[in-house]
Hints:
Layout: E1 2-5, H1 10-22, E2 27-30, H2 36-39, H3 41-44, E3 54-57, E4 60-63, H4 65-75, H5 86-119, H6 127-147, H7 161-167, H8 184-194, H9 197-200
Parallel strand pairs: 1-2
Antiparallel strand pairs: 1-3, 3-4
Helix pairs in contact: 1-4, 1-7, 5-6, 5-7
Bound molecules: glutathione (GSH).
Amino acid sequence: MKLYILNGSPNCRKVVAVINHLGLDVDMQSVAPFSDEMEGPEYLAINPNGMAPALVDGDFKLWESNAIMQYLASTAPDNDLFPNDPKARADITRWQTWEQAHFGPAMADIVWENFVKPTFKLGEPDPTIIERGTENFHRFAPILEQQLASRSFVTGDTLTLADYSLGALLMYAEPGKVPLEHYPNIRAWYQRLEATPAYVQSAPPPFAV
Ligand SMILES: N[C@@H](CCC(=O)N[C@@H](CS)C(=O)NCC(=O)O)C(=O)O
């Protein structure tokens, strides 16, 4: 299997964490952002969105980070990341879907404006987008905060795909000035994730800018 990744991408990091966690044999290939490589016909035949991550397993091409995580975890028998029980799987999928639909876009607005734009000299942060992201963040973060009040990890006391999906978004929370000060359970949970070897090893090298 081959995984195409973009250095520094949270969506790639969560897949790499799963590969590390399960000890899977997957070749990693970095693609250059905003490049002919990512927007060229060869890569678009793998992922027509021109985004990373993307997985190739023989004839099977798969994009969308959370689908890739579920596929990879399904290839490793009997693991806690994505247990066989239908309700456990639905619960994990619920949080992964919520990540892409709600929590992720709110975080992305804030982190893009406060961190990515200045880092890559992409222009001034737009206060309207930061305000939109902040409003959405405070709408959705209390739901995760409440969920983590009585659990060590998102769906229980065992780490699952849901933790890697939601946690990887927080890798730029500090430089991105994400307002986590009112969310102690989220902060404590992220510290637990940061102490997890598979997550630590998934950290990308620092940006060369
Ligand atoms: N929903 C997609 C999002 C993928 C995505 O946004 N990837 C970013 C990196 S985090 C990317 O490839 N950006 C390059 C671009 O938009 O051209 C997933 O979860 O895989």
